[in-house]
Specification:
The chain is an alpha/beta fold and 278 residues long. The chain has eight helices and seven strands. It binds nicotinamide-adenine-dinucleotide (NAD).
Length: 278
């Protein structure tokens, strides 16, 4: 994170308070850094503050909240397992106790398992996928919305914003990813339904659907040359994704520029979901 903004210059998210789940690694880390750079105070939430050793981020030895503080931003870390409702409730309480309110929830934490045919999936895989990728984010959304409803509509025209990190796998079927795809398709539909219910409350709910992005989660794919070749074939753009590609869209969805956008699932995927490339 570079903080080259002058002291008087306001960022796009100055004064906003954001929770980012899964903030220690990969996209969550890039999103936390991008929102902090625009002036948001960040509650970094994850199982542990340290980045995954399998990831590709620079300054990996420095936890996200410390990196933000070192760059002049405001951030705290709160341990939160998306599988545990009481920890999600506590997370939202902590944000409000620390910074006085909540403006943004980015539901980014997620699980994936290496590719396998549907018949080899187990109940345990289904339980963990649906629990962490769908039920946990739904609980976090409800807790955030309860808090948003206690707050007035701000000058930005919104009472609060939610961005869910879904997946292009929730749009296009990808061989070997059935449980993951179903959990993400559910998250994408959850985005649309919650947006519909709470548009009248001036609460924006959108989702970003990443394609192939180089992170700890996808490192088994990125460490296998034959899978890299396949991923390149199915991604029309000449390169695969990096966490900052996703962070830029999340930042836009959290900004006032996206005030009249809700219920959308936006693929950021180098064209992965567009069609079959030559
Ligand atoms: N990497 C990809 O190619 C890709 C593509 C599409 C969607 N996604 C989605 O993007 C999101 C971020 O993944 P990433 O690729 O940055 O992975 P990552 O492994 O780099 O980061 C995921 C983070 O989530 C945390 N986490 C895992 N389980 C958790 C739990 N139960 N509670 C709280 N935190 C938990 C991990 O500790 C980790 O810090 C996920 O929802 C993932 O499904 C990733």
């Amino acid at each position: 994170m570079s903080s080259n903004r002058s002291q008087d210059e306001l960022g796009k998210l100055n004064g906003r308070v954001a929770i980012i789940t899964g903030s220690s690694s990969g996209m969550g880390r890039a999103i936390a850094l991008a929102l902090a750079e625009e002036g948001a105070s960040i509650v970094c939430a994850d199982l542990q503050p340290e980045a995954s050793p399998k990831g590709y981020e620079i300054y990996k030895h420095i936890p996200t909240h410390e990196l933000i503080s070192l760059s002049g931003g405001r951030a705290v870390f709160q341990k939160c397992d998306l599988g545990k409702t009481e920890e999600i409730v506590r997370l939202v309480q902590l944000a409000v106790e620390t910074y006085g309110k909540l403006d943004i929830l980015v539901n980014n934490a997620g699980l994936w398992v290496p590719l396998r045919p549907f018949v080899e999936e187990t109940d345990e895989i289904w339980r963990s996928m649906l629990n962490i990728n769908t039920r946990g984010p739904a609980t976090a959304m409800r807790e955030a919305i309860k808090q948003f409803l206690r707050q007035p509509v701000t000058d930005s025209g919104s009472r609060g914003r939610i961005v869910n990190i879904s997946s292009s796998a929730g749009i296009t079927a990808i061989a070997g990813e059935t449980a993951y795809a179903a959990s993400k398709a559910a998250l994408s539909m959850l985005t649309r339904n919650a947006a519909l219910d709470h548009a009248k409350d001036s609460i924006n709910v959108n989702a970003v659907c990443p394609g192939v992005v180089r992170t700890a989660l996808s490192s088994t794919n990125f460490n296998d040359d034959s899978i890299i070749t396949e991923m390149r074939k199915s991604t029309p753009w000449p390169r695969l994704g990096e966490p900052r590609d996703i962070a830029r869209m999340v930042l836009f969805l959290c900004s006032d520029d996206a005030q009249w956008m809700t219920g959308q699932n936006i693929a950021i995927d180098g064209g992965f979901t567009v069609g079959i490339p030559l």
